[in-house]
């Protein structure tokens, strides 16, 4: 029986965009596991599996429900130890925790500032109302004000992620010669931006851009099957 992955979508159910859900999509593909996706907009998350979760991604594997992308990755490695590892051992789990913490504090806020109004426009009307109220309360400003002037923030962003760019000049993946869950953590953030917004800050030919293209090509071009925003 295939694993079910509940994942966040906008008005187009074929365009999942959540960075956390993309981590799990890639992790399932990495493990070579059969899975089916269940598209869920923001305002329907409380209805999933009888209200068991307030967040996605959520997976159902038989009678087991697991929420949170990192917890799901750990579960997959523990439940399917005969499949390719996502972490490469306990040390990899700890290092991936650092990558997750760094990504959510360094990349995610900037992606939000680059694309928060674009994400709003990507959603169905009922979700737009929820998203605007929730994000403007959290950000303390209108979505349009947050996104305004994004071109002027690109250089600062590229400097902030310079350690990642330097690493990828020396090796093809964050995980080394092949990808690990740490790669999918960072990939999810840039895929979020790619799917939801036409604004793309990465320079063509940059080591990070080349890494992102390699990630898009993984697992039969799984990342490319969802088109970039026009």
Automatic annotation (TrEMBL):
Entries under PROSITE patterns matching the protein: GST_NTER
Annotated organism of origin: Consotaella salsifontis
Matches recorded under InterPro entries: Glutathione-S-Trfase_C_sf (IPR036282), Glutathione_S-Trfase_N (IPR004045), GST_UstS-like_C (IPR054416), Thioredoxin-like_sf (IPR036249)
Domain of life: Bacteria
Alphabetized SUPFAM superfamilies for the sequence: GST C-terminal domain-like, Thioredoxin-like
One Gene Ontology MF term: maleylacetoacetate isomerase activity
Sorted UniProt keywords: Transferase
Biological process terms in GO annotation: glutathione metabolic process; L-phenylalanine catabolic process
Protein name per the record: Glutathione S-transferase
Coiled coil: none
Family annotation (PANTHER family): MALEYLACETOACETATE ISOMERASE
Tagged with keyword Protein transport: no
Domain GST N-terminal per the UniProt entry, residue ranges: 8-84
